[in-house]
Amino acid sequence: MRAMVLKRIGAPLVFEEMPDPIPGQGELRVRVEACGVCRTDLHVVDGELPNPKVPIIPGHEIVGRIDALGADVTGFQIGMRVGIPWLGHTCGICPYCVGGRENLCDRPLFTGYTRNGGYATHVVADARFAFPLQETGAAAALAPLLCAGLIGWRSLGFAGPGKNLGLYGFGAAAHIVAQAARKQGRTIYAFTRPGDAKAQAFALRLGAAWAGGSDEKPPQPLDAAIIYAPVGALVPTALESVRKGGVVVCAGIHMSDIPSFPYSLLWEERQIRSVANLTRQDGIEFLRFASEAGIETSTKTYPLERANDALEDLRAGRLEGAAVLLPPDA
């Protein structure tokens, strides 16, 4: 197979030829048709997440077709279209797994971080953590749903039922969540980098009632805010815009330090919550919702060997929506 490999933290990925992986017991192998480029991949490459398995093939927004099955795999067939997400394995026996919170498993494996991911022509996955996908829709359009969509969906649930919702950072996750929230009857207020007129116009095209810089106040108090940008300074900023009893959800896996702020911003029963990973139930619920609601993704595609370019475009904020890698012959 061919893959883009992270051999050293902070270094560019290297394009390599290697033997096709063989699925073990309970695993399946997928011929990758598309793999989304997530901000979490940047955090892995840049060393902002601890203890990655290096060398590692990044990528965890994977769409492809099964081309090999390991022993004891049931419910899947060769040729079936599946999605492979960030959460790649859980122990099943720790208190979090037993208590229905497998996203907090004590001994997890994560696709593209502690087990090889989808910046490749093939990937092996734990069959229990593969989602059957519909046959309609281009693979590149479906790929961002596997993380930007799933984490967005979980963060939307944590935001509660309030009508006025602020989204800080209008990238891959927010452009999906904005559509989901509008289907639920919410009003969207989009916050971008100050002066980013292009991102603000994108948000307005997707139905936001207002779009402005993160240094601006929305025209009315928010019931909740979700922060997708990895910028800790946005936490007190968002608290200032949230009404009494509102919630600020930090949706990223990594964020810069949150600066000190006066207690008055948190008082009156405002809350700050974080989102960690996902559960398989999140995937089942969101993929069904996305199909029924007609959620569409905005993507820019790159050949697999240009993964470094895609990562740099993401880092620089040059993308509208999500970047997606297409392996050879995809």
TrEMBL record:
Species, as recorded: Methylocapsa polymorpha
Entry protein name: Zinc-dependent alcohol dehydrogenase family protein
InterPro entries, alphabetized: ADH-like_N, ADH_Zn_CS, ADH_Zn_typ-2, GroES-like_sf, NAD(P)-bd_dom_sf
NCBIfam families attached to this UniProt entry: adh_fam_2
UniProt KW keywords: Metal-binding, Oxidoreductase, Zinc
Alcohol dehydrogenase-like N-terminal domain sequence ranges: 24-134
Family, as annotated: Belongs to the zinc-containing alcohol dehydrogenase family.
Protein's UniProt keywords contain Nucleotide-binding: no
Pfam families: ADH_N
Cofactor: Zn(2+)
